[in-house]
Amino acid sequence: MVEAILAKTRARGGGHPDVRRAAPDACDGRPPALPGETLAAAWSDNDLDSRRWHISRSITHLPVPGHAGSQRTLGVKSTKTSASDAVIALPPIAVEPLRGHRAEQARQQRAARSWRDPDLVFASPVGTLLEPRNVLRDLKRLAAAAGSTRNVRLHDLRHTAASALLAEGVGIAVTSKLLRHTRIATTSDVYSHLLAEVREETASIMDSRMRRILDPARRRSRDPAPAAEDAPSPRAP
Q1: Cα gap 112→12, rounded to integer Å
Q2: What would the pLDDT profile of 64-91 be if each residue is shown by its tens digit?
Q3: Which pTM was predicted?
Q4: Containing domain of residue 9, as a range?
Q5: Cβ distance 130 to 5 under 8 Å?
Q6: What is the mean pLDDT of the chain?
Q7: Cα 168 to the center of its chain, rounded Å
């Protein structure tokens, strides 16, 4: 979905959106991740050569030290459960954009007066965590530029990826594991509408396959047996 949004935005003369905010959704390519996990991604947790990403942390809003009340600041925490701590295979199509983003980020770091955290994959112009609300605002802007009237959320990207996997025939157990749901039933409940469509499509595929197998056999059973050739007449002495 986001790739289409970006393509349409460029086609309309909008150019590339700010890579610091668009990258988590547009060139990240890691569907099983939650938005907070993507925004907290560290280069030290990524191995682009082997296409592996170790998910071990997420962003959170922490109380500001020395300030009472509801004042919060962005911080990083460990992922919520052992099931959430996972190694995900990066699709090859995501690796090259990430390499380009890393090179551009290195250039920005050299030009910046200060850079807070050089290990952050997606960072602000001063190397700090991106505020999810700002990323969501940019995503909505991209969606609107593409003509979408939906009230998109960051989490919709995860749902879109899971729906695409199921529509392509990836099994519910595999999809559930990629999403890191603790129970397959959770995945089934969330995507039950799509699973019904997949079941119908599977039935159609099976029907076509069985027809290809059975139809030649049926034709052979209906066709009359070829007449036996007349035996050659014996030669006259």
Answers
A1: 31
A2: 776 666 677 888 888 755 555 588 888 8
A3: 0.64
A4: 2-151
A5: no
A6: 77
A7: 13
Query: Is residue 5 within 8 Å of residue 142, measured between CB atoms?
Result: yes
Structure tokens at 118: 């050089």
Could you tell me the CA-to-CA distances from 180 to 59, 131, 176, 177, 189 in Å, in that order? 18, 24, 6, 5, 15
Q: How many CA atoms lie within 13 A of 74 on its CB side?
A: 15
Write the burial class of residue 143 (CB in 10 Å: 0-12 exposed, 13-18 middle, 19+ buried). Answer: buried
pLDDT at 62: 81
Structure tokens at 89: 């295979």
Residue that has been written with the tokens 């004042």 in this structure: 71
The predicted structure's pLDDT at residue 20: 37
Number of domains observed in the structure of the chain: 2
How many other C-beta atoms lie within 10 A of the C-beta of residue 104? 13
> What pLDDT was estimated at residue 183?
86
- What's the pLDDT score for residue 31? 45
Q: Where does residue 37 rank: exposed (0-12), middle (13-18), buried (19+ CB within 10 A)?
A: buried
Domain boundary among 128, 151, 174: 151
In this structure, are 101 and 186 located in the same domain?
A: no
Q: Is the pLDDT of residue 205 over 50?
A: yes
